[in-house]
Structures
1.
Amino acid sequence: KKTMMMMRRRRRRRRRRRRRRRRRRRRRGSRRRRRRRRRRRRRRRRRRRRRRRRRRRRRRRRRRRRR
């Protein structure tokens, strides 16, 4: 009985999702390399980030309200 109870408790545990921040990439490398990478990646990231952030924020807010 004890082993079955332990297995059930392990299955019922909720997993927390971690949010990944991409700020670490900006800190790496010299200033000249940062400027070159930022110019190329900023244009691509800004377009993708704005679309993704809006979709993710709407979904997360709906889930929080339901809970």
2.
Amino acid sequence: MGAIVGVVVALTATPRAEAGVYVVRGVELQLPDGWGQRVKGPVTLLAPTKHKGRAIEVISLATMPTATPEALKTLLGSAKLEITGAKEITREGTKLVAASGKVVTPKGEVAVDILALPVKDKAVLLLSFVGADQDPLIKKANIDIMLSARIPGPRMTTMYAAPTKAGLVGPPPAVVERISKLVTKLDGMLRMPRPLPVKFEQCGMINAFYKPAAHTITMCHELYDDFIVLFTGAGFERTKAEKMAEGAFMFTFFHEFGHALVGELELPITGRGEDAADEIATLVLAQSPTVGHAAALSGAAWFEISSKKAGRQNVFWDTHSFDAQRLVTVLCLLYGADKAKYTPLMKSQKIPDSRLAKCSRDYPLRVKAWKGMMEPYKRRVK
């Protein structure tokens, strides 16, 4: 193994990679932009492109070592590994081994940090070179990569609890199933730093919410029933009202998912969080010209109907924008995504040409901004 490890590694030919989450030898790692991978037998070398110093080696092991210096010092075969500290840690329910020490070769000593993770019935070792000759930026990246190491698995899941209150119905199984499939798809696209369950349950109020402290998204049965009342009360026949309620419920889910993205990933947004949540919901739904657009339009219809309710007052201290403003925000983004399709609707809303021009300009900028913030968290296939 010692000949394979190669304490001094030149990685000038390492293929460049985009920032994101990669599975390396069965371990999920969040790699910075410009870092690449090179496979050498049972070892995968990680480092920035053209970097000639020491970075990280990911090594396949036959068995999971114990957290003792005696068990760890022989992991590199003929290379001498001196352990100065070792302990067992738990990360998301998985027991890992963390250690520090140095690799000793005839050419000198190299300080290393060590992390061992169980992968199926075997193990993987991360060897991070943190010697004094390390570039400070690369040293920080090494630390972040080691902290990001996880066993692959779903972060976003769904939980359903049937309503118990008499007369409360909530979303039908087909709606819950559709959103659950979306949750699975989102989880396959992005890695959250911790589990983020999406719960469908009775709340005792008409609402949906993301709880930062609990790291959960809750979709209340009461909200779906209220959507049915809202749309039937606006004159839609029952079948159409149910489709509109499903769309508005889906829009609300993506709104809360937007809050979760900002909270869980600590995204550097500016302005109102509620406006950002409406924006991400609409941008995501705009990617689907049929189901997604219909859901976004249902959300817009919700705002329009609400804005015209008799006796409704604008609450100036509310964290949400006014319903009429939220309506225009959604429609503006849809117009930016498909100008030809939504020009008649925007004209019917009496949106001036000056605002329409701004909608066209803003849409690609919004997409680019959100895409840039999400890049480091995208799950990527090597």
